[in-house]
Design goal:
Number of strands: 15
CATH architecture of the largest domain: 3-Layer(aba) Sandwich
Shape: globular
CATH class of the largest domain: Alpha Beta
CATH superfamily of the largest domain: Glycogen Phosphorylase B
InterPro entries: Glyco_trans_1, Glyco_trans_4-like_N, Glycosyltransferase_grp1
Distance between the termini: 17 Å
Structural class: alpha/beta
Order of helices and strands: HEEEEEHHEHEHEHEHHEHEHEHEHEEHHH
Protein name: Glycosyltransferase family 4 protein
Low-confidence stretches: none
Pfam families: Glyco_transf_4, Glycos_transf_1
Mean pLDDT: 93
């Protein structure tokens, strides 16, 4: 999203990346060879292989062939670096220092998704990447954490000073969102799913036991009736270990399972829905949901409450069926609760989580 919107701001954009990509089903894959091409949004993409000598080691510590040559050819004025925890950050920052290039770095790492083993936490993050972070600090304009928790990680794990740490939200492709709204994507999807005027709850993503989708299914099945017609729509891929339990819970007249969806299709389902529920671990799906202006219910995680922009979201404090039952009936049945959430979601969520605005802030242009 950032390259797309940086290009829209009038910049000439090139992305230098590894061979790691995603296939048509959204699963990680490795491209067959180094290549240069242009994306559908018009920016250049330069794919680099890992250095061939000691390739297995280099793929782990991330050292690339022709990186210096690619930087020289592109001759950038600004570098936006996606996480700096790769070995070749040293040569990248030498190039930036030598050529007086403005550098911004984002961080997607925290103590929930990384630094789990003793070696990872105390050797790599608290020694290696902390040391490198302090060395490159004078030449970086800003380090961005993409959640408040990841801002804390920059400050605590890498000891980046407060003055050089800011929150940079992830969000939604607001151009695409507006196109879909103009074309009536939500109404068309409701017709396709035969949902007419029903209140639609959406949940899903990677369906394993950590995401707690099974708790939403159980809670929904336990509620005898709402004050209006309600349907629960579930999307995603079911993990093998959860398949038997999830398939049993999906058997219900008011539950629709639609399987795996592309990111483009997920946006259609967000637009179609009245309420979105993510009761487990965090993913970028949370920010995208807020950016569509849809009220939501999230699992509470300390440092990940930025998705509440002033009443659009409620949080689950416990992994329990009973709590989900209670909060669903509160939102849907108690007069005025949902309406207030919707007002906040549409007034603030669509603006704060739009990549048009996020892209400007990412380059210090807010």
């Amino acid at each position: 999203m950032l390259p797309k919107y940086h290009q829209k701001l009038g910049h000439e954009v090139s992305v230098i990346a590894s061979l790691v990509s995603f296939d048509k089903n959204g699963k990680p894959c490795t491209l067959p060879k180094a290549n240069t091409y242009f994306s559908t949004d018009g920016y250049k993409v330069i794919r680099l292989n890992y250095r061939r000598c000691w390739k297995k080691i280099n793929s782990f510590i991330r050292r690339y062939e022709n990186l210096s040559e690619s930087l020289k050819t592109e001759n950038p004025d600004i570098l936006f670096i996606h996480d700096y925890s790769f070995a070749d950050i040293i040569q990248v920052m030498r190039y930036a220092k030598r050529n007086n290039i403005q550098v911004f770095i984002d961080c997607h790492t925290d103590y929930i998704n990384s630094a789990k083993s003793w070696i990872s936490k105390h050797i790599f993050h608290h020694v290696v990447w902390r040391f490198i972070g302090r060395k490159i600090l004078p030449y970086v304009s800003m380090f961005y954490g993409v959640t408040p928790l990841r801002c804390d990680f920059l400050r605590n794990a890498y000891k980046i000073p407060e003055a050089k740490v800011e929150l940079l939200l992830m969000g939604v492709d607001d151009d695409l969102l507006q196109q879909k709204l103009n074309l009536g994507a939500g109404e068309r999807l409701r017709e396709k799913l035969c949902l007419s005027k029903e209140f639609v709850i959406l949940t899903g993503g990677k369906i394993d036991m950590l995401k707690n989708i099974h708790l939403v299914l159980e809670a929904f099945r336990n509620i005898e009736s709402f004050s209006k017609e309600v349907t629960l729509v579930v999307f995603g891929t079911i993990a093998p270990e959860a398949k038997e339990k999830i398939n049993e819970l999906l058997v219900h007249s008011k539950i629709k399972f639609v399987g795996w969806l592309s990111s483009d299709e997920i946006l259609d389902y967000y637009i179609m829905s009245d309420l979105i529920v993510f009761p487990g671990t965090h993913s970028v799906l949370w920010e995208q949901a807020v950016g569509t202006g849809t009220p939501a219910i999230f699992k509470y995680w300390e440092g990940i409450t930025h998705v509440d922009v002033g009443g659009n979201a409620l949080f689950l404090k416990h992994d329990s069926v009973e709590e989900i039952e209670s909060i669903l009936t509160h939102v849907i049945d108690k007069e005025g609760v949902y309406e207030e959430m919707l007002k906040s979601a549409q007034q603030k969520g669509c603006t704060e989580f739009a990549y048009t605005n996020i892209a400007k802030k990412s380059l210090g242009c807010e």
